[in-house]
Amino acid sequence: RFFLLARSADSQMDFDLDLAKEQSDENPVYYIQYAHARICSILRYAGGLDYSDGEVSLLTSEPELHLIRRMVRLPEVVRTAAVHLAPHHLTYYAQDLAGAFHAFYRDCRVVSSFPEDEAINKARLKLVSACRIVLARVLGLMGMNAPEAM
User: What's the whole-model pTM score?
Assistant: First the structure.
């Protein structure tokens, strides 16, 4: 389904079955779904930590801000896809958002065991929780599942 949506209606379809079956970062579906599953794993690892009072103003690093900027684009992307009957905008957005999350995860420790990191832990958990919702929504809009584990 993703591979059908990933091309504009006026472009030629080039379907790579081997890529579609591959479970690696080269497969865009796997890459996007893995971002969602990784977030679910982080939230499970955080366990009972209540991050609802996480202070998002603490999120000032470039990877954090880049992820936020990508997340807030969802309504604009949905509107563009709908107005222009161009669902490929959703696939590009999903890949971009997954890439922003993976970069954030690589560069920022989400859960630290140091007591002095509690405030930033809560803020980052709040951020990844919001990202999980956005990824799940865009996957749902494309008719795909958002796995909690892979």
Answer: 0.83
